[in-house]
Structures are given as structure tokens and as C-alpha cells.
Amino acid sequence: MVIFIGHNYINTIEKRREVVQIPKDTKQTLFFYRDDCSDCQSIFHQIYWHNAINHNIVLINMNQPQNRQYIQKYQLTSVPTLIHGKQRYSGTNQQRIKQIVGD
């Protein structure tokens, strides 16, 4: 039962379309995703739980129109995309994700 509630809660977080302000000199990992993207959904739980423990990831839902300003700024061509400093990865490979988020 707890797993089911946790799963539903994370799915609710994933569907949020909040406007995100990224600080200019952030040290956090940026996670660009869309809540209707199956690849994004496949890694969202991993990203969420890592962030719940480490608090070092900014979740940016690109289905929020005001977040689309970041497409040009970060030269985004696909989601999911993780950016941490000069490191950048687009895709769902668990090992690459761990390298970026610092697992």
C-alpha cells in the first residue's frame, strides 16, 4: 500500500507544470522533461528519489509554456535532458544518469 501511495504521489509531482526560475549560477543538476514523454516517465522515479535524498536537482517540466524559454538558453533538442555544469546527457541510460546526478 505504501509503495502504491508513493508511486501516485510521485506521478502527481511529475505532472506539475510549475514555472521554474533557474538561478544564474546554480550548482544543481537541471532535469528537463515533459510529463507526457514515455522516456521521461521511465526515469522520473529514479531522478525524484535521488533528489528527495540529495536535494540537488531542479525538475523542469517543459509542458509549462513559461519554461520553454530554456530551450534556447540550454540548447535543448530533446527530453529527457540532464545538465550539470559542463556535463550534459539526453536519454535514459541509468549509468549515465548516475554519473550526471552524482549517485
How are the secondary structure elements laid out?
Blueprint: H1 2-15, E1 29-33, H2 38-54, E2 57-61, H3 69-73, E3 81-84, E4 87-90, H4 94-101
Parallel strand pairs: 1-2
Antiparallel strand pairs: 1-3, 3-4
Please provide a written account of the structure.
There is one protein chain. This protein is α+β, with helices and mostly antiparallel strands. Helices cover 43% and strands 17% of the residues. The protein has helices spanning 2-15, 38-54, 69-73, 94-101, and strands at residues 29-33, 57-61, 81-84, 87-90. The protein has a 4-stranded mixed beta sheet with strand order 2-1-3-4, covered by helices on one side. Helix 2 (38-54) links the parallel strand 1 (29-33) and strand 2.
**Overall geometric form:** globular
Q: Uncertain runs with pLDDT below 50, 5 residues or more?
A: 1-5
Secondary-structure element pattern, one letter each: HEHEHEEH
CA gyration radius, whole angstroms: 13 Å
Helicity, as a percent range: 40-55%
Average of the residue pLDDT scores: 86
Q: What structural class do the secondary elements suggest?
A: alpha+beta
Give a quick rundown of the structure.
Helices cover 43% and strands 17% of the residues. The protein has 103 residues and is α+β, with helices and mostly antiparallel strands.
Question: Keyphrases for this structure?
Answer:
103 residues; alpha+beta; four-stranded mixed sheet; 4 helices; 4 strands; globular; disordered N terminus
